[in-house]
Amino acid sequence: MPFVLDNEHTLDVAIIGGGITGAVLAIGLLSRGIKVKVYERARGFSEVGAGIGFTPNAEWAMKVVDPRIHQAFKNVASRNSTDWFSWINSYGGDDGTIKTPHDELIYNMYLGERGFEGCHRAQFLDELAKLIPAECAEFRKNLSTIEDHGQDEKLVIKFQDGTTAQADIVIGCDGIRSRVRQLVLGEDNPASYPGYTHKYALRGLIPMEKAVPVLGEEKTGSRFMHLGDGAHALTFPVADGKLLNVVAFVSDPDEWPDQHKMTGSCTKQDALHAFKNFAPATRGIIDLLPERLDKWAIFDTCDNPAPTYFNGRLCLAGDAAHASSPHHGAGAGMGIEDVAALATLLELAQSEMQKKTHSKIDLIHHAFAGYDRIRVKRSHWLVETSRYVGELYEWQHGRDPARIRREIDWRARKIWSYNIDEMNRQAREEFMRRLALGARNYILG
User: Which InterPro entries does the UniProt entry name for this protein (predicted)?
Assistant: First the structure.
């Protein structure tokens, strides 16, 4: 670990949430000599879900935050047997007759030398946890509120178990149901809460020896999106190619029954009914799911986006800031982009503290304002486009293959080709601009 400055000249950061974004942020700040403590409500570092993939922009951001993070991902990532991501028309017919017994290719996208690699969320998080000293994390800590007693005092963090902690900064990485988001935006603000997208997901990990006879070597060795009316499915290998990750999405015209509970139950027969008019191979892979399934409601922040990601010394990152539906497979990666910007700006703020020409509170404000300016527009767009392509995959915007192909291409490339170094250059420039403007206003005042 790098040399850590004395408390007077070191930022003290509390991270609420020990998922992937929170863990990556902790590692990035610790490697920059910033004091960190992660507070997670579970018994250990925790992530919801099974398989996850990272796009090229996310891998670039990992390297910028700390190369060890990228290596941790590579330690558990499954390399695709091909370098392509394929979108296929897997629908049979509205009248129940299968008109396309063999899936019709809509689009092939080249993913690069190693492809779009996936891993199991828990395995990746386990690797990240190895990089965080035990004293830098506390568990079973469920946030209640945060009190600000003035700029010369640390924030007081109160937990539901009656304990408290203190920090200069609190960054909410506490996911889609973020308590920190409520404190940043206001508990009565609709933007503090996610909304139901009228789609739910069914997830499963299928042993590859069962999946290959159904889908074949080609479709189990790479990423395939199976498109159709009212439902669609994503399949890709994980666990070093030993398992096929299956995520099946189904449109739901009804309201979700419990806004505080994101899972429900259904049977494999329910899933098969949703995919009854799909091609045989797609129906076959759905038939390999367990008899009893969890139905995961897909919520996002599209309808009521956050106008800002910070308030005072509170800040949001990852899903707490911009929870998106998973249809681009880029939500976690967008959180890692956030971390790359935050780590850059907070390192710059701490460096400026050594000069003693600006107050700590002003430097924190400049860092968060720069982060807000750099990250809000792009991450809001991701939420919007993820909602859109989820509808596109289920033909809610028409069935024209050429149009679907164009939409997939430009939207995916806008995500994947994002320049992380340029983002950080702009972030540093914005910070220094605000710093100079603050000094000028002080002189003129």
Answer: FAD-bd, FAD/NAD-bd_sf, FAD_monoxygenase
Dig out the tokens for 336 from the structure: 């890692």
Query: CA 299, CA 195: separation in Å to the nearest integer?
Result: 5
Distance between CA atoms of residues 240 and 357, nearest Å: 52
Give the separation between CA 18 and CA 142, rounded to whole angstroms: 11
Under 8 Å between Cβ of 231 and 275: yes
Determine phi and psi for 88, rounding to 5 degrees.
-130, 145
Reported pTM: 0.90
In tens, the pLDDT along 23-77 reads 999 999 999 999 999 999 999 887 666 667 788 899 999 999 999 999 999 998 8
Q: Which two tokens stand for residue 203?
A: 């997830």
Instruction: Please answer whether residues 164 and 156 qualify as being in contact, where contact means their C-beta atoms are separated by less than 8 angstroms.
Output: yes
**Residues in the chain, how many?**
445
Task: Give the residue among 198, 420, 189, 159 at the shortest CA–CA distance from 307.
Answer: 189
Which of 79, 177, 203, 428 is catalytic? The answer is: 203
Bridge partners of residue 145, in order along the sequence: 158
CA distance 363 to 295: 45
3-state secondary structure (DSSP) of residue 191? helix
Which three-class secondary structure state does DSSP give residue 213?
helix
Distance CA 375, CA 367 (A): 12
Phi-psi region of 117 (alpha: psi -120 to 50; beta: other; left: phi over 0): beta
Burial class (CB in 10 A: 0-12, 13-18, 19+), 6: exposed
Alpha-carbon gap, residue 235 to 246, rounded angstroms: 5
CA distance 27 to 66: 7
> What residues form DSSP beta bridges with 78?
118
Facing residues of 228 across strands? none
Contact 206, 234 (CB under 8 A): no
Burial 84-95 (b: 16+ CB within 10 A, else e): bbbbbbbbbeee
User: How many Å apart are CA 232 and CA 398, to the nearest integer?
Assistant: 15
Q: How far apart are the first and last CA of the chain?
A: 42
* pLDDT, tens digit (0-9, with 9 covering 90-100), for 326-363: 999 899 999 999 999 999 999 999 999 988 888 899 99
